[in-house]
Amino acid sequence: MMDIVAGSVILIVLLGPLLFEPFERNLEVFFLIVGVLGTVVMGQSSWSLVLRALCEPVALTAAVLVFGAMFRLLRPSIDRWFASAIKIFGPRWLCFGLTLTLGLLSSIITAIIAALLLSEGIAQLKLDRRSEVFASVLACFGIGLGASLTPIGEPLSTIVIGSLNADFWYLARLVGPFVLAGILIAAMLVSFVRTGDGVTHPIRERESWRLIFLRAGKVYIFIVGLVALSHALHPRVGVYLVRAPDALLFWINTLSAVLDNAMLAAIEIGPALHAHQQRAALLSLLVSGGMLIPGNIPNIVAAARLQIRSREWALAGLPIGLALLMVGFLALSLASI
Predict the structure, then answer these.
(1) How far is Cα 279 from Cα 334, in angstroms, rounded to an integer?
(2) pLDDT tens-digit series, residues 65-110
(3) Do residues 249 and 284 touch, judged by C-beta distance below 8 A?
(4) Burial of 129 (C-beta count, 10 Å sphere; 0-12/13-18/19+)
(5) Residues 4, 9, 15, CA angle at the centre, nearest 5°?
(6) What is the pLDDT of residues 274-294, one digit of tens each?
(7) pTM
(8) DSSP one-letter code for 257
(9) DSSP string across 179-244
């Protein structure tokens, strides 16, 4: 009976945002409601869960708030720095440097702030539209990968560390070499971007303090809901996933291209999985999350600020993501020999 209930909760979580636009527009509230209801119907509610759900998002929320405030205050200086860097290094090397640097820093400054900085830099480059999209997608792959290394990088890593009750650097040890290689590949590819055929179009609107606090609040609510959802489903889902081969976990998680990868991480990755299963599932989630706009937070931020449409993103993100998935799967296979 409980397996049927767990399956029903998973279907609601997976299909709700895809079928109903209000759920898609308000993912934070949707996951909070489903997570709370899930813990109740699965018999997993407790005061210890409430305390954990309220405390776990604090570090990432604080990082988003602090670095968001710094971005707002320093934005004029950041724009001047980008203008000077373009003259010194040129657009191609600046794209390379942005992708590499933001990929490496995103686990500290958060994926959201890294995506905001990326948007500022890309917006000032003289790139034609296709090259602009190509550079943005590749850089977001790098940011999404890098942000996974610490629990303050993005919701996915916060949820996984909490679910596993692991230390701050656990994910860096688990997937660090694969992530660093992925960031380097993305940076090398973006260095081939065409330059000089477009026009600059800096983002003029300035973020309000209201938006900064609202964004931090949404991150907090999002993680609270995912913590509850994770706690509700892991006891049942883990029984089945622990028997799944690494290859199955890797390829089934390509669903995160159309579904937020933090949501799938909340459902799947828990203490029942062995380290090699965690690694396979996590790498697939991280790479697939960059293929389409809904898959990862930096995609959503960059696409909104640079006005990149879903079709434009998919034309660049799908082939890049598939290539990275093949490379990642090969690397995992060789590492397990």
Answers:
(1) 13
(2) 999 999 989 888 888 898 888 888 888 888 999 999 999 999 999 9
(3) yes
(4) exposed
(5) 120
(6) 999 999 999 999 999 999 888
(7) 0.89
(8) G
(9) HHHHHHHHHHHHTT---SSS------PPPPHHHHHHHHHHHHHHHHHHHHHHHHHHHHHHHHHTTS
